[in-house]
Design a protein that fits this description.
- A hairpin with a 2-residue loop joins strand 19 (461-468) and strand 20 (471-478).
- This protein has a 9-stranded mixed sheet, with helices on one face. An 8-stranded parallel beta barrel has the order 2-5-8-9-10-11-12-13, surrounded by 5 helices. The chain has a two-stranded antiparallel sheet with strand order 3-4.
- It has 551 residues and is an alpha/beta fold.
- The protein is globular, with a radius of gyration of 23 Å.
- The longest helix is centred in the middle third of the chain and has 28 residues, at 312-339.
- The chain is built from 11 helices and 25 strands.
- It binds alpha-L-arabinofuranose.
Amino acid sequence: MIGRREFLRNSSVLGMGGVLISKYPLAALAANADSRIEILLDEPLGVISPNIYGHFSENLGGVIYDGIWVGENSKIPNIGGIRKQLVEEMRQIKPPIVRYPGGCFADSYDWRDGIGPTSNRPRRTNFWEGAEVAGSPANHKYDPNQFGTNEFVHFCKLIGSQPYLAANVRSLPAEEFYRWVEYCNSPTGSTTLAETRAAAGYADPFQVRFWGVGNESWGCGGNFTAQEYAVEFRRFATWVPHYGMELSMVASGPNDDNWDWTRSFLEEIARKGAGELRSIYGLALHYYAWNLSRGRTRDWDEGKGDALRFDTVDWYELLRQGEVMQSLIDGHWQVMGEIDRQHHIKLVVDEWGPWYRPGSEATPGDILEQTPTLRDAVFSGMTLDIFNQNPEKIAMANCAQLINCLNSLYLAHEDKFCVTPVGHVFKMYAAHQGGQALRTIFGAPLVHYQRDGSLASLGSLKGSASLHEKQIVLTAVNSHVSEPREAEIVVRGGSVKSVSATVLTDSDIRVHNTFAQPDAIAPKDQPVTPGAFSKFVFPPASVTKLVMTLQ
Ligand code: AHR
């Protein structure tokens, strides 16, 4: 974390203006409506990759041990040691891809420790041991390796996901990366490692396509300069055995607005020939919204806010940081295009979400665990809407992290379990996956608020739309804590036959689910008056999904 902290202390301030940019003049608003949404059927933006709805599970705190893995002999219902309720919940959100084993953990991990008979696997010091607190479980500090590659791939199969594995660049040689690929992908009976895999009950190759070449290589992943990392990337990503399938290498990319990392890394790769750029499938961008100090500090620890105790200014401050995602995508995309002129390389936002200070853990002792509220649901909806609107730039995104961690979809401890408001958003937004993103223009008043004496603003109504044969899925967030937004909705090039609405909201902006009250907040279907559909009222502090069937 020191790397990130140092980086954040030294980085430049991000532009955070409220954005409502449209090249189309918005027509006059219908009577009573204060906002307008225009969906342009004849302006497709590209197919929304399901992988934008990806997840991240690091061997950190309670994510793996207690979150995903409860063990085969546990009283907690499980499938081969994997928490059954998690599997059942995840099947409902169509999870496309899961990233593992880190995060920072990845660059300290030897994949060989996590294969073979579980009774023979070594116990190792977890990368995060130093951050663990008194009273946290021993298996969080000292990794028992009961959950390794086999168990992770089994988990992915159970939930219908693809695995995305992050290789250790900092502390293992490239050869070990090739061997891991060999273990996962070499054909049945072909290599000694294929036989080792078969002996564990997995004769068929895992066919892992996505591989991260290190993680945060500017910090915990090796503390490299961009140029040094480019050399490592080439060493790792060159001549990896393919076994007849496509491999997609994800390079460790920038933190936040570190344009220099993006430029220097790609320039160094291209120095050996522009063709070298084709070895990179995606450039990983990490962005956490963490600074709720209202401009008082940029210190990584001091700047953080509280997950549960916050006022309306904190609400707006966090969401304003959410808006920044669009400028990060645009900024890095521009830099990438200066070097990779055909835009062969896409962005992979493989860590995103809010990050608060400790104190809201559902399970005391779980490091980095926080309890998501409605604020995080609105943040997550806003972020997913941004990804939906950039299908040509974003190939994958992974919310950090799946369970018992930062912006988690689920909280679990022993036999207790709940879906967080973020989990509900993923369930609502799953309907976008694979659809054709449509250019959609939101016209709405900005939210203005006092930020300790100075005026600040952000967009109030924002969202995205996608087309699925005869259906349009429209999702939108209303960031305003007290004002509804009544929007006229116009579908250019089509007419709407019927509409269904699902809304996630509450009068308490701090509402959250707990083990004792797992349904304190859940999405509700809202009746839509049949007949001519032209307006919808988006409640304050809400995430909404409208499914519109066209004539
Ligand atoms: O998600 C927690 C940590 O944040 C990850 O391990 C690391 O990549 C990032 O700094």
